[in-house]
## 1
Amino acid sequence: MKELIRSAAKLASVAADPFFGSFPGPRILIYHQIGAGLGRQMEVTRKAFAEQLDWLVGHGSVVTLDEAIAQRGRAGDERRFVLTFDDGYDDFYTFGYPELVKRNLPFTLYLTTHPVETRKPLTPGGKAEPLTWGQVEAMYASGMMTVAAHTHRHLDLRTLGRDAAEEDLAACDELIEQRLGLRPAHFAYPWGYWSDLADEPVRRRYATATLGSGPGITEASDVHLLHRVPIQLSDTSLFFKRKMRSGMRLEDVMRRKLKGYAGP
């Protein structure tokens, strides 16, 4: 029943896209786990991931986050795709990273540092083990990966005061700098939820910040409030292609209502 409801909602989103108008700008895709087998919407199968990469390569250019932001508003930027991966799961290194290497595709890893440092997974129970620092270093050494910040503990920043948010951001930045010798220039809000209290420290620390799904990206877009396109387990080939072309933005409207999120 849940799958039928989800499919019906996606079909409604496809039908509603024309009413939302154009969907401009580069598509910044959100991935989490690859081939984990947990059945959660935040993962995709290995087969689907490979097919999605091939579609992106065949229908546009996979570019770095920096390149996409620098070229936003230019002709054809709706055919520029940015691959981003959140949290840092070892199945991404095992199953996703080899597919990126095979196609020589740049990508951004928004890394949550506490699981990597402590070896305690964000999701207990198996099949969601964190990356090791050795794996992160290997991907960074390839020259394909942009390392970005995703907080230390992956807490909803709306629930923290400004000082606590600043402390968590600092812990993430400092660990990345200690382990990799670089200071992250990009950031993703956990759960995709913007926080007014964290906004100032985020702007001060990072060149860009990304949220969850939402409007397309234009030349006038605030680079600290950039929306991405979540890729889900239930995204068939049809839904994936429609997300890339027109956004399926009714999904975002429904998600916001269900989650009670009223932010940007």
Note: The domain at 23-236 is CATH 3.20.20.370 (TIM Barrel).
## 2
Amino acid sequence: MFFFSFHMIIASVLLSVWESYLQATLAVLLFGLLLLLESTGLLPHHCLKGFIKYCRYEEGPYLGGVFVAFAITIYLVVYMAGYVAVRLKRAEEAQKVANEQLREKDRIKDEYVAHLTHDIKGHLAAIQSCLSVAITDSLPPLAAEFVHRAYGRAQKLTAFVRMLLRLTRLKLDGRLEMEVFSVPEAVREAVEAVRPTVEQKPLRLDCSLIQEATASGPAGSFKEAIVNLLLNAVKYTPAHGTISVRVETQADSVVVEVSDTGIGVPQDEQPRIFEEFYRASNARQMEHEGDGLGLSLVKRAVDLHGGTIDFSSELGRGTTFRIVLPVALSKGVPGPAGTASA
């Protein structure tokens, strides 16, 4: 008899209100019919000997009281469970609507930022062009110093605007034109792009790349993500440190690791490392200038390629970023590993 309550709770959660009351009515009628048939002897009644001392299935008033108590209990269970279920469903629908509104507002914000940064980039390009013309040997020393400062600031601001524009476009698109590309080749090109910066500091750059492994997505976007990781490692690795790049395959994935012997990331700040505009406290102390967009761009690019990125870091010992992409098998099989150092 008591187990009907569980059935009614489940029915109230899964069914509509009127369907739940219909189930409750059916349960009450069936239970009443069972009482009637057993009390009249049409169905055999089995007493729970040793558990119930007196079998009262033939006492009309007792059976009537049990039936009324059962009916009230069932309808109350349906009412309370249905009320809670309806409230939860309404809250869920409201949450869905709110999330959709937030996504729409975020899209509008990203479109606004994209248009704004595009316009700013054009003005900055004009400023840089004017300053580049103004930088001549005929300028007085003090004027030349200020022009060089303005030109340097304009370059940094342009780089920031370009980074913000790329990140915004990635967020707006939400998809990439898929093509099969060579991961080792993309990593090799990224390494060559940052090699002058690495040698200028100077730092040691070690590379271990397999001959071939392919993934799906635009090679340019992936190469840009690797360049950002390498430049980040260069920025926060003291002179004469080491940056290591490794590409390997594991099962159906291609793995790219970028390691450095830099300053590392404090343990309590690691969960926020991929947030936009966020920079770790020790990074701000070591390098005052920075936009905090590089790793956000890397995370977004890897996500859109269908991959994952994680990292491990030890304060004062360095950081290792690990990118895992699904292998595209339509363009060759990974070959043996080769190692090069610089």
Note: The chain has eight helices and eight strands.
